[in-house]
Amino acid sequence: MKVHHLNAATMCPFGGRLIAGRGGLLQRAHMVCHVLLIETADGLVLVDTGLGTADVAHPVKRLGAGFVAMTQPRLDPDETALFQIQKLGFSADDVRHVVLTHMDLDHAGGLGDFPKATVHLHAREHEAAMSRRDLMAKTRYIPAQWAHAPSWKLYDGEGEDWFGFSAVRALSDTETDILLVPLHGHTRGHCGVAVRTGAGWLLHAGDAYFHHASMGAGPWTPAGLRVFQALTDTIGKDRKRNQERLRLLKQARGREITLFCAHDPGELDACCAGHPL
Ligand SMILES: [Zn+2]
Q1: Looking at residue 25, what is its pLDDT?
Q2: What is the 262 CA–ligand 1 centroid distance (Å)?
Q3: What is the pLDDT of residue 17?
Q4: Residue 165: in which H helix or E strand, if any?
Q5: Ligand 1 centroid to 264 CA: how many Å?
Q6: Rounded CA gap, 217 and 251, in Å?
Q7: Could you tell me the residue ranges of all domains in the chain?
Q8: 198 alpha carbon to ligand 1 midpoint, in Å?
Q9: Per-residue confidence band for 13, with pLDDT thresholds at 50, 70 and 90
């Protein structure tokens, strides 16, 4: 099994150090969409998809003018997961499974580039995205991103204990250990995705936090990100509780578990270099 850490979209919002934690106020910040490509005996597994080729080609129509203005995505076709997977010598159909932390537009955007993949996610998240009950849900969940009607595989219930978290085993018919770890709050059914590798566990925490310093012994989060995460919370108290549980997990088990979120460029660089933060 081989794991690739990829950036499947860069966002360059205004706000400088209020977002990135360093640099000038007028500088652009730099946020990535950290996805995992896992080579398994059962084909390729993609964890999150970033923005897809259709999002990059038609950003305002697909993602909405508000999202484009706020996040200032780079919109580079070479950053799509599809392009990077092809560059590695694979085809779209080699991606047999996609596991989603949640269905926000910057995580589900590439689904349509892998139409034959089974899409695995928490049942609560699927229900929230399909029903789009309020204005926030209508903004963050984009039906065009799953208009190809993928084959969904939904998970619910308590599952098994994983380092004190309840986790549900996904892809249980393969030899790869991939678990959905419910970390609800950012969205209704938001999960982390845990992957066992030869060197320990990876935990992709999605948008459960946004900056590596939030997981430190003396945690802090840049002010702009604090506002952003509060604005995008679905259930704020659950998000805060889960963020603290993750922080304690990292402090206690950081040697066995490599923890990273979706949008921190420093964490992505460190994972790519083989020296996680
Ligand atoms: Zn996100």
Answers
A1: 66
A2: 6
A3: 67
A4: strand 165-170
A5: 10
A6: 7
A7: 2-273
A8: 28
A9: confident
